[in-house]
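Reading is simple: each integer encodes one residue's backbone shape. An example follows:

___
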Amino acid sequence: MLDCSEKYNADFEDVGKIASGKFGTVYRARNVITDDVFAAKHVKTRKKSVLEMVMEEVSILKTLSHEHILVMHGAFQSRNEVIVVTEFLSGGELFEKVATDDYHLTEAECVRFMYQICDAVSYLHRKDIVHLDLKPENVLLTSPDSLIVKIIDFGLAKKLNENQEVTRVLQGTPEFVPPEIVNYDPIGFPSDMWSIGIMTFVILTGLSPFLGDTVQETFSKITAGDYDFDNNEFDDISEEAKGFISHLLIGKMDERLTAEECLHHPWLSTETKKAMKSLKKDNLKKFLARRRWQRGAQAVLAIKRIVSAFNAEVSSESE
């Protein structure tokens, strides 16, 4: 049982919108008693499917306690809405921060951040939780002066159980979803690892490895594993970094590195060559500008219709 929304209205005051998306709006919320600031996600739950999703998110967040994962402070429910109150992370998005002109982004800094992300994901997987929406927008810095990151947004997360039936999903963000989601095959912990490979590629070069001109073209590239390191942006990137990515962007799920194995990979566990050279950020700025534009049109994309159309097209071509 969640607390009633009347208690939220008595204890909190929404003082500004932070973000909005398909499933809800996030506000900066002030506790009127303590004056502390939190983030409050308001989710309209008129649809049963949305209510079930946010209740699973609350159930998962209640079980989590890790330095690189968002902390939930409470959840409140009315007839048509659930409000999830979490800590407020004032540092903003990691990728936005490192793309600024005054931030000295090096490969060593990328190692620092990706290690924290892998550490958090390793913790989730040990608790049988798969995030399923790892992307730049869901990695925030705890404060403007901090280099500590936290993973947020567990709206698509699933608790996996070996005794349950296999889990398939048709939601995600197209350029970050693994081939098993595109193909509507069973997902698992390796699904998160594919997304970590994409994020590593992006933070190092500003390039999105499978991005096509259309969503369908992006899916074709994902299912074909169509990417390479031939771009000039990789000239100053270490072989360890390329090897790290190569062991994540693999079509076969059981061949991808686990989160725990990533923590012991040479790229994350040792200093890399040329690590202190500043990375080019023009592409990263373009990537982020495009992502902001896309979020203005739609947030997390429910890709059922697009995947179905893509797979139907593939099937007709193979006949």
